[in-house]
Here is the input.
Amino acid sequence: MSGGGANYHFHDDASSDGRAPLAEHCDAAEAAGLTTVCVTNHVERMLPSGRWVVELEEAVERFSAEGGAAAREDAARPGLDVRLGAEFEYRPEWTDDLERLAERVPFDFVLGSVHVVEGLNVSGGPEVEEYFEDRNLEEAYAPYFDALEEMVAWGGFDAVAHFDLVKRYGHEHYGAYDPGQFEGRIRSVLGAMADAGVGIEVNASGLAQAPAAPYPSETVLAWALEEGVPFLTAGTDSHRPDDLATGLEEAVAVARRAGWSRLAILEDRSVVEERPLETDSASPAGGAEEVGGAR
Ligand SMILES: [Zn+2]
Ligand SMILES: [Zn+2]
Here is the structure.
């Protein structure tokens, strides 16, 4: 498969925003011809009060159960490897609990995400308007990239999820986003990722949203290679089985155009395989190349 055949970012119903049990997502993955999936549920949950919390014991229990479900699906499906991941949302007050969670649950892969900037959720919900309404382009985007760099300095994860998610609603307020306006800041984050051994994801969800491009788009993916970011993962960030593979091939094609030739597969928080991405529709002849752990 030219797209690498792997989805390393989706959510099932053990995630506060996901729908349908893991088995239904795996059915969809098999139907789409994928060979590896990694379920990456959110750690935080929303309380009835509307407040988001990370509760360590609850999370250990929930992700341990998810690991059991992933192992059962993996054992039951000869053509599909099912891995256990998580999406860690970076907030300074949560990092201790996230680190303890990662010590207690044998994750294959952990994404690091910024959704909240200066106390407001910029990726969805009622705070989006509040965040964007009184800011100009610089005031909206720069603090997001600063938060991303702060998260990379923390470093308790394997790859940065949806690198420029701020453009989802930024697009509606300021029009199409030109990464060139923030090149210095973006390259600084990418350089820090390279130094820390942190990978980047190409996230397909932006293709169906206002930006009509993955997070991040081709320019930033090319800069990531130039700055030495060590590996690339791909994910749909889907929440329903129907969307499990939506946009995945297209997102990976954008990464290919940016110069990426390999898609990383992680287990036990290390890159265990780098699948060649073909530049045409011919399927890879030799299959995967094995590499040592990247971190
Ligand atoms: Zn996210
Ligand atoms: Zn997600």
About this structure: Residues 6-290 form a domain with the TIM Barrel fold (CATH 3.20.20.140). The longest helix spans residues 56-76. The mean pLDDT is 93.
